[in-house]
Structure formats: C-alpha cells, structure tokens
Amino acid sequence: MINQLTEVYIKWCNDHNIPNVSADEQDRDKLTYEQKSWLDDFMEQWDNQQEIDRFIYVNLKNSTRNKRRGV
Q: How many domains is the chain partitioned into structurally?
C-alpha cells in the first residue's frame, strides 16, 4: 500500500507543479489552502498505513516464530 500512496503523491506533485520532495519537506508557504489540506490528509493516511504495515510485520514475525517453537 505504501507503494500505491507513493504513486498517488508523485502524480499529485506533478499535476500541481509541486517539487517531488518528501511530503513533510514541502514548502507550505507556497501551497494553496486546498493543497495544504490535501497534503495533511495524505500525511495522515501515510502514517496510518505505516502503522498497519508495522502491525502486520510484527504479527507475521510472531506467528512464524511460534510455528517454529510448535506453539
């Protein structure tokens, strides 16, 4: 999912003639209200997806470890 979010972000930057830098490095002083709002929503979704990915990774890792132990 992070790859898909990255694609969306790159397209958005290109569509709005905004530098393709990390979302948290954008010069917010040069953005419109709508662009700032979109960027805030995007960063929230990015953070949420990272939490989901971390949850999946930890649980799959623990599941594999428990299978090796015969639990």
A: 1
Domain residue limits at 50: 2-69
- CA 59 centroid distance within chain: 20
In order along the chain (71 residues), what is the average pLDDT of each group of 10 residues? 94 98 97 98 97 91 67 56
Q: What is the 3-state secondary structure (H, E, C) of the chain?
A: CHHHHHHHHHHHHHHCCCCCCCHHHCCHHHCCHHHHHHHHHHHHHHHHHHHHHHHHHHHHHHHHHHHHHCC
Q: How many angstroms separate the first and last alpha carbons of the chain?
A: 31
- Put simply, whether the predicted model's pTM sits higher than 0.90 gets the answer no
Q: What angle do CA 20, 25, 6 make, to 5 degrees?
A: 45
Tokens of 36: 């700032």
